[in-house]
Design goal:
This protein is 32% helix and 17% strand. It has ten helices and nine strands. The longest helix has 14 residues, at 3-16. The mean pLDDT is 93. Bound molecules: zinc ion. The site of zinc ion (ZN) has 7 residues, from loops.
């Protein structure tokens, strides 16, 4: 089916649906200039002599945070400072869909806070967020400036404890409450739009198994994911192109 026909079909399904849920990954933020961790030219494949002896997975792991915190924060500050990044058309269109009562919620694997910045209200951040940080000793909360502008190599709380991002690192469990809410959202929706995710990470990808009717699943991703045969509508076109043509 041609792109035009698939767009018409997508707009028809959106019009007919009453409770749409969006589930997105790194690809949603690439148009804002945040590299996709797993893509060919993404963060994981950027050559950086300073970090070369570590794998990117290690640099974003709980082991690295607690065993080599200086290395962790050096990498984190260089690569994950999202404070000056702006949302793109996909974020804005989703916020508009929510404001008009079409979209129930956004479930995201991103930690950049761009959906909220675009105006989305109900966002489930299943891998946490760089915007929230807390003391590992007394659990006092800190904003992202505290991490990114700290003059000390390891950001500290007044109590002396290390301040860490509320981000799900490798080796850590997903935040239970967010994850359960995301599952409920998907089970209750009448259209799930999945976009910008390679769907390789478990358990995040298992959300798709909750959709039994393939007509209720739309997949938008530049590359093949292996989940195409579960979706009634598939787009390998550029996401911003698809979203710019969604009529709300
Ligand atoms: Zn503290």
């Amino acid at each position: 089916m041609s792109f035009d026909l698939r767009m018409a079909e997508l707009n028809k399904r959106i019009k007919e649906a009453n409770k749409i849920v969006f589930f997105g990954g790194a690809g949603v933020s690439t148009a804002s200039g945040i590299p996709d961790f797993r893509s060919k030219d993404g963060l994981y494949n950027t050559k950086d002599a300073q970090f070369e002896k570590y794998t990117p997975e290690y640099l974003l792991s709980a082991s690295c945070l607690y065993q080599h915190p200086k290395v962790f924060y050096e990498f984190y500050r260089q690569k994950l400072d999202c404070r000056d990044i702006e949302p793109n058309i996909t974020h804005y269109k989703l916020a508009e869909m929510e404001a008009k009562g079409k979209l129930s919620s956004v479930i995201t694997q991103n930690i950049d806070g761009l959906h909220q910045k675009a105006g989305s209200k109900k966002v489930y951040e299943i891998h946490g967020t760089t915007l929230v940080n807390y003391c590992t000793w007394c659990h006092e909360y800190f904003d992202d400036d505290h991490i990114f502008t700290s003059s000390e190599p390891i950001p500290r709380c007044e109590c002396g404890g290390m301040v860490r991002p509320d981000v799900t690192l490798y080796e850590e469990m997903l935040p239970q409450k967010e994850w359960e809410a995301a599952n409920t959202e998907v089970m209750d929706c009448d259209l799930l739009i999945v976009a910008g995710t390679s769907l390789t990470v478990y358990p995040a990808n298992s959300l798709l198994n909750l959709v039994r009717d393939m007509d209720k699943l739309v997949l938008i991703n530049r590359d093949e994911t292996g989940w195409e045969n579960k979706a009634g509508l598939v787009f390998h076109e550029d996401m911003t192109e698809v979203f710019s043509r969604i009529e709300v």
